[in-house]
Amino acid sequence: MREFRKYWIALLVIALLTPVGLYLPQILKAGSAWGEWGIEEIRQVLGYAPAGMEKEAGRWNAPLPGYAYPGRGTALLSRQGFAYVLSAIVGIAACGAGGYLLARWLARRRR
């Protein structure tokens, strides 16, 4: 585990920086966070929405819509930033667990 110390520290730093994508567009008056556009924002920017995007727009609903957890208050900077960091940590843990399980399965299969 010691050999992965720098890796885990880097992942933690990245997780802690996730709210930057939320606040920077607000500070720069640039609209929503990059890459988190809804179908209406795409239509507004491009003048149209791609047909495939229109067709699939309602298919996926996020487990934590807007990175908000139940009972979130109105203090945007503290609560929503915390929700972003929490979502990042949960995502990192899920990907790490999935990678670990896949590696174990492949190692057993190789034997």
| Through-space gap between termini | 24 Å
Computed CA radius of gyration, to the nearest angstrom: 18 Å
Order of helices and strands: HHHHH
Mean pLDDT across all amino acids: 80
Q: Residue ranges: pLDDT <50 for 5 or more in a row?
A: none
Number of domains: 1
* Helicity range: 55-70%
Structural class, by secondary structure, is mainly alpha
Q: Give the beta-strand count.
A: 0
Major sheet attributes:
none
Quaternary form? single chain
Q: Tell me the overall shape.
A: extended
Percent strand equals under 5%
Topology readout:
Elements lengths: L4 H13 L2 H8 L11 H8 L4 H6 L19 H35 L1
Helix pairs in contact: 1-5
What would you say this structure looks like, in words?
With 111 residues, the chain is mainly alpha-helical. The chain has one domain. 63% of the residues lie in helices and 0% in strands. The chain contains 5 helices and no strands. The chain has helices at residues 5-17, 20-27, 39-46, 51-56, 76-110. Helix 1 (5-17) runs antiparallel to helix 5. The longest helix is centred in the last third of the chain and has 35 residues, at 76-110. It is extended and about 55 Å long.
What is this structure, in a nutshell?
This protein has 111 residues and is an all-alpha fold. The chain has five helices and no strands. Helix 1 runs antiparallel to helix 5.
Which key features would you list for this structure?
single chain, extended, mainly alpha, 5 helices, 0% strand, 111 residues
